[in-house]
Write a structure and sequence with these properties.
The chain has 2 domains: 66-146, no CATH class; 158-324 and 334-341, no CATH class. It is built from 5 helices and 22 strands. Strands 9, 10, 11, 12, 14, 15, 16, 17, 20 and 21 form a 10-stranded mixed beta sheet that branches. Strands 18-19-13-7-8-22 form a 6-stranded antiparallel beta sheet. The protein has 346 residues and is α+β, with helices and mostly antiparallel strands. Helix content is 23%, strand content 36%. The termini are far apart.
């Protein structure tokens, strides 16, 4: 009877599996984990050998003075020498007759005799660098504020004070404390200065220039404000930003004189008026904001639009009233008839 020997597939592979297991066991465990670890950053690979090196001056590294380790993006200073040259340093100090500094170029602490340093020029140069840095920071902040203002949609509600919203329709508005007033334009009339005309006629000298007086009818403006520092907002429908000038008006009889226009023989007209400082900014896209450069005294004022041809005949007039007295609250009556816009607290 013939006999057959049956070999299972795993019996054939067993010697091979045993050999592989022995090879794996011979590999150190630490090397297996090292294969999974990410490679060291280039900065770490460079910094490692530098930790054992000393500075150029031979001074040993200390925790407060890490020699060989570059400072992250240092804002360098100048250490000016007496010969006119300088080192760009991260910091410096004087220790007796030695000057110690951290060189940005070599990323190490170094020492030189203190007599080689022009200390007065160094302090002056670094003060100028700090002033330039502060100015740059302020400019960047202002640019960022302008970007934010430009991104605001003027078609949506614009808060101009705590709980006070600027009206949505296009127009010219005044913020008097917590009250929004709707400004109105009035027509300023121009009349010939009769005194100048008479002198010109009597003297027979045609070289005398012609003078016109620009006036607003009435002694007082209808729009009255109590704040000495009101704010004005011009919301435009077409994106126009007019060039406005704040003028102090002089009461002359029953009129308010805004400006005078003097025309010489060549036809050039020069306008003269009492201009007050005013700052202009963009509160939002399509909304121009006007703030006072100084406190306004009680009196009559006008906002005049100036163009290349001169000043416009239509002006926005308003008056500043003196603050009420504290001891006449019983006798004073509420006669404020200002065309106030109801505060919008949406």
């Amino acid at each position: 009877m013939s006999s057959r020997i049956y070999h299972a597939p795993w019996m054939v592979k067993w010697p091979l599996l045993a050999a592989l297991a022995g090879m794996v066991a011979a590999v150190p465990v630490g090397s297996l984990y090292a294969q999974d670890a990410p490679p060291a950053a280039p900065s770490e690979q460079r910094a490692a050998p530098a930790a054992t090196s000393s500075s150029d001056s031979g001074t040993a590294a200390s925790p407060s003075e890490p020699a060989g380790i570059p400072a992250p993006l240092p804002r360098g200073q100048k250490l000016i020498l007496t010969d006119g040259s300088f080192h760009v340093v991260r910091e410096y100090r004087r220790a007796g007759d030695r000057a110690r500094y951290y060189s940005v170029e070599r990323s190490a602490w170094e020492e030189i005799p203190a007599s080689m340093v022009d200390w007065a020029a160094t302090e002056k140069a670094n003060a100028e660098l700090e002033a330039v840095h502060r100015d740059t920071v302020e400019r960047l902040r202002a640019a960022a504020a302008d970007d934010v203002a430009g991104s605001i949609d003027s078609s949506s509600s614009l808060q101009v004070s705590s709980g006070v919203i600027l009206p949505d329709p296009p127009g010219f508005y005044a913020l008097d404390g917590q009250v929004v007033l709707s400004m109105e334009q009035v027509l300023a009339a121009s009349r010939l200065d009769k005194g100048r005309a008479i002198i010109k006629a009597i003297s027979g000298i045609p070289l005398i220039s012609t003078k016109h007086i620009i006036e607003i009818p009435g002694k007082r403006a209808k729009i009255r404000v109590q704040s000495a520092e009101p704010e004005f907002y011009f919301r435009s429908a077409d994106g126009r930003s007019p060039q406005l000038t704040l003028v102090r008006a002089d009461i002359n009889g029953d009129k308010r004189q805004v400006s005078t226009a003097v025309t010489d023989l060549t036809g050039t007209t020069k306008y003269e008026y009492r201009e007050l400082p005013m700052m202009t900014s963009e509160a939002a896209r399509g909304v121009q904001r006007l703030t006072m450069g100084q406190k306004l005294e009680p009196g009559e004022y006008a906002l005049v639009e100036t163009t290349a041809e001169g000043i416009s005949s239509y002006v926005w007039d308003f008056g500043v009233d003196a603050p009420p007295r504290a001891n006449n609250s019983k006798t004073d009556k509420n006669t404020d008839a200002r065309p106030a816009v109801k505060p919008n607290t949406r």
